[in-house]
Amino acid sequence: MDLLRxxxxxxxxxxxxxxxxxxxxxxxxxxxKANPRQISTMxxxxxxxxxKDVKCGDLRYGRHTYDYQEGTLVFIAPGQVISVENAGEVxxxxxxxxxxxxxxxxxxxxxxxxxxxxxFGYQSNEALHLSERERKIxxxxxxxIDYELEHAVDKHSKRLIVSNIELLLxxxxxFYDRQFITRDTVHQGVLERFEALLNAYYQTDKPFxxxxxxxxxxxxELNLSANYxxxxxxxxxxxxxxEYIQSKVMDVAKxxxxxxxxxxxxxxxELGFKYPQHFNRLFKQRVGxxxxxxxxxxxx
Length: 300
Description:
300 residues; five-stranded antiparallel beta sheet
């Protein structure tokens, strides 16, 4: 059985990686100082940004394997469990990490919108692959945080540390936007497969058994996390994944409204709505007419 390690404090993570604790809520770690290690499962109570410089095995979130190669950046949020699969081989960690406790950002602007950095929720095949220039920018941000930790804490320390973490995350938003465009071999055809998935969905009895297709369900069928999938769809189509699904549902609804032998309620249930009034409300919101008004207009 895998050894489970829990990291609830920055100090616990520092001890594991042979690093001095200079601040109780944040640390910059040179992973090459850590002792050689074997496979383990790690539960994080911290935010962690890991820049990996060695092939040590496949990183797993739950049942999904991370696309975690040399020169990649991985983001971990509190509550996540990570494991490394490498057949029990001993390896020497290399690279750098920034870890910080949620308490560091409480009451700050970053704390109020940390959830906007959706890559903390990416799970499978979704690490950030850095170019050499991007890597230098990331390391520069790490260095600025480390600089603050080298000096005695003063009234400016927290603001500067949090600002540099936010700057790092903002750069990563840009780098992911670039990756969505350049990693065509990974993302090729996601919209087409999404469209095909929705088309197939409405040719089965899934709407009766599952209901309306959710973003999470679609993402799982395409082997992507909901966050990464949502960001990719938004980048490719300009719509959120939910808007895309609703648009497809309305297209199917319009086609079925041409079938005069079907009632509005029957169509609603066929589409996966639990209640016909929910279908009526969404249809009017999206189309500008009620289903019955649309049907009558098409018949005239």
